[in-house]
Amino acid sequence: MDITDIVSVYKIPEYQKIKQGMIDSLNEVGATRLREESSPDVYMTNYYEYNNWPYDDRVHNVIKGFLDDYAKDGWCSIFEGHMWHQVYEKGDYHDWHVHVGNNMAAVVNVQCEDNQGTLFKIGEYVYQYPSVEGTIIYFPAGILHRTPVHEADKPRIIMSINWDNKWDDSK
């Protein structure tokens, strides 16, 4: 099996033109510092605030474009999920986990230098999918995945999205 059989990628159109606006939107929403220096994990997130759509149009338009593109093949994307962002400083990581409550998950690569990507574990096999700034990788939410230790000096910024999809027979 190849990881591209399970994980797909969407390239955000003209990303370099909108990148700073997305980062500004995330900064305006803010995030909570989670860890102490002696206990590495994810540095900052707004995951626990449970506001499904806290971002403005600078982010909304990107996510809507992605979901519309996904829906063009007959899938009906229903955003009844959760969206949040995380900031990884050097040494941070996110351990193995799955996303529960929805059937799809995605990682929006807002800012990344290290290209380490996301690791996926399926059975006894571990696959690595590289991080490419300005892309959204998406996959079934029940797949075990993690973010390796961030090694770059510049923070890695990602957004995570959980949502439900169903097939639209009318298309």
Please describe what this structure looks like.
The protein has one domain (3-165): Jelly Rolls, CATH 2.60.120.620. 18% of the residues lie in helices and 39% in strands. It has 2 helices and 11 strands; from the N terminus they run E-H-E-E-H-E-E-E-E-E-E-E-E. The protein has helices at 15-29, 57-71; strands spanning 8-11, 32-33, 44-45, 75-88, 94-97, 104-111, 118-122, 125-129, 135-140, 144-147, 156-167. The strands form 2 sheets. It has a 7-stranded antiparallel β-sheet. The longest helix has 15 residues, at 15-29.
Structure characteristics:
2 helices; Jelly Rolls; alpha+beta; single chain; 7-stranded antiparallel beta sheet; 171 residues
